[in-house]
Amino acid sequence: MSLSILNNIPSLAAQNQLSITNSSLQKTLIQLSSGQRINSGADDAAGLSIADGLNANIAALTQSARNATDGVGKLQVADGALSQVTTLLNRAVTLATESANGTLNGDGGSQRTALQTEFASIKAEIDRIGQNTTFNGTAVFAAGTSNDPNVLMGATTGKALTDTMTTGDSLKITAGGNSFTYSYTSGDTVQSLLNQVNASNLGVTASLSSGQLKLVDQKGRGDIAIDSSSTATEFGGFTNAAGTGSNVFSVYLGDGTSSGASHIDVTLSAFSSSNLNGTSLTSDSLSTAAGAKAALTDINAAISSVAALRGSIGAGINRLQAATNVINNQTQNLTTAEDGVRSADVGQSVANLTKYNILTSTGISALAQANQMQQSVLKLLQ
Which segments of the protein form a coiled coil according to its record (predicted)? Predict the structure, then answer.
């Protein structure tokens, strides 16, 4: 090898290698301090994309579990309120049975009047419970007396449709296992589509809202699905809207994907003493023995109705708790997957740290030796 003083090639090589070693050492130190193998897109672009996607799903599922817990809390409040209604109705049974007894003084007498006064107080308290029971500042039992409410189901979101329909194009709508296919013919109007959907056996209400076709399932059977290769931009595309109703609240259990949020709709029908799931105590009176006997029949029917409502609420609680268990399992599995992609292998990182520390020391020594090589050239000039 020739001797040269113009360029110190060994020194340059040692510097380059030392720079590479220092970069690897810094990366290893960052991994150990953060606990993450991927700290930037440069570390693993594909892995970062996968890990961030999993992390987004985990965040959505975690919130879904909280949603379900809140839903259970609301249903438990409702069940507790109905439990008090049952207690009041049981007391009403006692009063009606006593009033029906022939040993009391005559109809309209002071004894039956006292029983009627307490019975009226019971009905007033049932009304108060139905109107004033709240959860998180909102009424648990909606205003109104409908005992057969529409359960409005939210449908798939994130499915924007923007093409223009031409003759021969079709639109397929599926709800609750039933499907309807609309074939576009030149000259068809938006209203003709609405009329055909509403006249179909889907049980879906179609309307035009803010320039978009809005589909709402009125029977609560599940999500509405739209399958179409094209739509009409004349009314801005098709959308599915989550419904709202006075007797319905939805618990959303989405996983963060764009295919649509999964949710559970629970009906909490409004009630009062005039409508306990179809049974009315309004006209009942304990002022007479005959009236007490008639009231006893209505009160027993009301107890059965409330029991049915509590059974429905109990089923909703069980469903939400089951959904929570599934969500927690999904969260655990996704967290494991995300951890496998993102987390650093501490053992491997420590081994790398030791290796790069040694390489740094040897690199510095090699650089010093390379820099001294040119000093030997001066001896030739002596």
Answer: none
Average pLDDT for 127-141: 88
Q: Residue 119 falls within a domain, yes or no?
A: yes
Q: Which of 209, 243, 277 is the last residue of a domain?
A: 243
Which tens digit of pLDDT belongs to each residue from 256-307?
554 444 666 666 777 888 887 677 888 888 988 899 999 999 999 999 989 9
**212-217: strand order across its sheet:** 204-209, 212-217, 238-240
In a domain, 226, yes or no: yes
Q: pTM for this structure? A: 0.60
169 & 210 share domain:
yes
Residue 211 has a pLDDT of 53
Q: Which amino acid is at 250?
A: S
- In degrees, rounded to 5, the angle at the alpha carbon of residue 277 between the alpha carbons of residues 219 and 100 is 165
Average pLDDT of the segment spanning 252-257: 54
- Give the pair of three-digit tokens for residue 22: 């220092």
- The SS3 assignment for 368 reads helix
Mean confidence (pLDDT) of the chain: 76
Distance CA 86, CA 127 (A): 13
Distance from C-alpha of 356 to C-alpha of 254, rounded to nearest angstrom: 45
Average pLDDT rounded to a whole number, residues 331-356 = 91
Phi and psi based region of residue 35 (left: phi greater than 0; alpha: psi -120 to 50; beta: remaining):
left
Coil, helix or strand at residue 342: helix
- DSSP code per residue over 240-267: E----BTTEEEEE---S-TT---EEEEE
Per-residue H/E/C for 50-87:
HHHHHHHHHHHHHHHHHHHHHHHHHHHHHHHHHHHHHH
Q: What is d(CA 306, CA 222) in angstroms, rounded to the nearest whole number?
A: 26
For residues 194 and 180, the answer to whether their CB atoms sit within 8 Å is no
Decide: helix, strand or coil at residue 276: strand
Residue numbers of the domain that contains 303 = 50-149+268-338
The residue that leads in pLDDT, 148 or 71, is: 71
Distances from the Cα of 82 to the Cαs of 42, 134, 276, in angstroms?
59, 13, 11
pLDDT band at residue 241 using 50, 70 and 90 as cut-offs: very low
Spatial distance between the Cα atoms of 120 and 117, rounded to a whole number of angstroms: 5
Whether residue 309 contacts residue 79, with contact meaning beta carbons closer than 8 Å, is answered with no
